Amino acid sequence: MAEDIGVVGGGIVGIALARALSDRGHRVTVLEKEAGLAAHQTGHNSGVVHAGLYYTPGSLKAELCAAGRVLIRDFCAEKGLPYREVGKLVVAVDESELDALADIERRSIENGVPDLARIDDVERLREIEPHAAGIAAVHSPHTAVVDYAGITEAMAQDVRAAGGDIRLGHEVTGIRLERGRVRVTTPVSDDVFDRLIVCAGLQSDVVAKLVGADPSPRILPFRGEYWELAPERTDLVRGMIYPVPDPRFPFLGVHFTRSVRDTVHVGPNAVPALAREGYGWLRFSPKDTWQSLTWPGAGSLAKQHWRMGVGEIGGSLVKPLYFGKARRFIPELRMSDLARRSPAGVRAQAWGRGGELLDDFAVDQVGPVTLVRNAPSPAATSSMAIAEYLLEHHLAESTG
Predict the structure, then answer these.
(1) CA nearest to 292, candidates 384, 202, 194, 366
(2) DSSP category for residue 294
(3) What is the pLDDT of residues 68-100, one digit of tens each?
(4) Rounded percentage of the chain residues whose pLDDT exceeds 70
């Protein structure tokens, strides 16, 4: 039976869900607080369609990434959107990284990464990325790049064509359960829905609080800063060059990515942001910062990762430190090759009361309200698969 369903959030996950619901005949209304779609995480990333190299086999991340990659690829083909399989090379620079590289190879095989290859021949490595340093690597030739903002807009067109309503400039300020339905208020509207799904990204815990959900997990914003290679030096990178991630830290580290527009981005780093939407050091929210510092897990997190934090902040403020991290993978890189800063992104990292950073997708249910509490990378890759998962496991009654 068709229902009136509200979706909070106009990023790629919210719009993919709205599209899936519209396809099933539901009346869908999307409420987005910004003046445009894909305004935050969706429009501020490197555009990578992940193949599933890093994720724990059997995890929701791994399963939805594998399914989502195919769905994104097919959608781009259907809509005539760019989808470039530039390939990813994960490089071990020295012998200390070989065990971790072997673990990535094992995970990739278990996750069904297509045509994955282990490379122990330096000459073969140089054939793929002639300027990369390293003694060994794994190569994922089908890892691709896209324009996620463009994909979001194309999906939004499908929603509108199916009769869905996408309202920009509608920040949700109130959610109240009324006799099994949900009243949602914004400064300019008041609606009652049969069901509500919240895909609010950086604001997900704020919106969850409106409906009385558990305060945990809290969102800890991390800013990712990028440099762009000078146009005359983009030949240093053919596709993507990634480091072997340090298992002690929650982020991958600086890497190189060729975009759909043939620019090459270097980054991101991972700097604690001083506001949920803190895209620069000058963007400071006393409320957001205080909430982070006073969260029960703050002390544990700081104790565990303070060295990484100091290093990331240093690289943010001092270009030579950032350059040093990047040059480890391309020895020919010059300081002047980092020509300009690209727009930064802010990652909505969920963390629990004990200071643990949530690694997998997390969803809560409060009556007729479904809350996506954590949708970390590869959420953009997985967006269409996330929508299908939510319909099957959290909205089955209204889609069955």
Answers:
(1) 202
(2) T
(3) 999 999 999 999 999 999 999 999 999 999 999
(4) 98
